[in-house]
């Protein structure tokens, strides 16, 4: 009888521990759980700059990013870096996966989607880091990251957003390097399972997609624009401007095949001049992996994955556009100087 009581108590404690462990899938800054954050790592610096619901202006992260404690990425990815429990749902994808030398030439997206099954909360983390982040592995910092600029957008989302995120990832043609769906969520996340194993229905025209999601408590709304490699759409002037019917200023890698556009009142793409000042730091285009756009006369900021180049017409990608005034204001200031229309 004593053995039975002890075993029962142990199982209850173990179950409760797993519940607590599995519940920790959310966006985190160094100091708190948040509905979202935007992190920028400046060129040639280790200290990240962060914006969150608690900080409407750029603020230093909790620690340098080569540290294994007390900064937003380490905090948010704590569950990802531990052995992933069987009762968790997790997907990691990248065109340049960790633990691999493969580089996909048909997609540009990188991110992690993660949920525990004891809660409806999870996070979707979009990032620009190449060969990062391996699952079930402790935090590491390749020295080459220090000289580069990088960006991370983290959204705390409920499970009800998964049916919206899946088609976005399908159109982005993501390369999945880790995928697991909890057996308890097999029915709810059937499409996610199909995405992981490659059995989703074939995409038919139009070869682009828009999904609208919200973070927990509807704190932030985001429109996710995705395009396939066969769409033949250039991300900015060929896709976003036409769908959104806006003028935009962009910061993106360019090979000079495209520049600031000229023409009518709506549909301009204005290329931000290099170097760009963000959070008081100077960042050269050739070293900055982050790519983004701000919409003129609207409180909209877009985290983008594509370079501004004619070659990108045959590369899948995405723009995740958040409606957030403070973020828009900061990047509009950064985008004040842009390359003029070459035709006057």
TrEMBL record:
The answer on whether this UniProt entry bears the keyword Signal reads: yes
Pfam families listed in its UniProt record: DNase_II
Q: Name one GO molecular function term.
A: deoxyribonuclease II activity
- Give the similarity note: Belongs to the DNase II family.
Q: Which species is this UniProt entry from?
A: Trichinella zimbabwensis
Annotated InterPro entries: DNase_II
Tell me which positions the record assigns to the signal sequence. Answer: 1-22
Q: Which UniProt keywords apply?
A: Hydrolase, Signal
Q: What is this protein called?
A: Deoxyribonuclease-2-alpha
User: One biological process GO term for this chain?
Assistant: apoptotic DNA fragmentation
């Amino acid at each position: 009888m004593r053995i039975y009581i002890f075993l029962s108590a142990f199982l209850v404690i173990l179950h409760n521990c797993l519940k607590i462990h599995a519940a920790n899938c959310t966006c985190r800054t160094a100091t708190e759980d948040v509905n979202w954050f935007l992190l920028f790592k400046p060129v040639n610096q280790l200290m990240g700059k962060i914006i969150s619901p608690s900080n409407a202006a750029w603020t230093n992260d909790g620690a340098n990013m080569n540290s294994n404690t007390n900064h937003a990425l380490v905090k948010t990815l704590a569950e990802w870096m531990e052995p992933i429990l069987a009762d968790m749902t997790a997907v990691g994808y990248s065109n340049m996966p960790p633990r691999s030398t493969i580089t996909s030439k048909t997609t540009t997206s990188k991110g992690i989607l993660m949920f525990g099954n004891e809660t409806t909360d999870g996070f979707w983390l979009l990032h620009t880091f190449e060969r990062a982040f391996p699952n079930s592995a402790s935090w590491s910092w390749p020295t080459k990251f220090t000289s580069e600029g990088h960006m991370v957008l983290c959204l705390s989302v409920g499970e009800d957003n998964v049916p919206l995120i899946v088609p976005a990832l399908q159109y982005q043609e993501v390369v999945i390097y880790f995928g697991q769906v909890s057996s308890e969520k097999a029915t709810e996340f059937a499409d996610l399972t199909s995405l992981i194993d490659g059995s989703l229905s074939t995409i038919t025209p139009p070869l682009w997609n828009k999904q609208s999601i919200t973070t927990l408590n509807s704190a932030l709304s985001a429109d996710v624009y995705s395009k396939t490699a066969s769409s033949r759409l250039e991300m900015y002037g060929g896709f976003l401007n036409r769908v959104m019917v806006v003028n935009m200023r962009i910061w993106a890698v360019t090979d000079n095949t495209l520049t600031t556009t000229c023409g009518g009142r709506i549909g301009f793409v204005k290329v931000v001049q290099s170097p760009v000042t963000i959070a008081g730091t100077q960042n050269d285009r050739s070293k900055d992996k982050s790519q983004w756009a701000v919409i003129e006369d609207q409180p909209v900021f877009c985290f983008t994955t594509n370079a501004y180049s004619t070659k990108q017409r045959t590369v899948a990608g995405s723009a995740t556009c958040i409606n957030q005034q403070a973020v828009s204001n900061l990047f509009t200031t950064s985008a004040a100087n842009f390359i003029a229309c070459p035709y006057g």
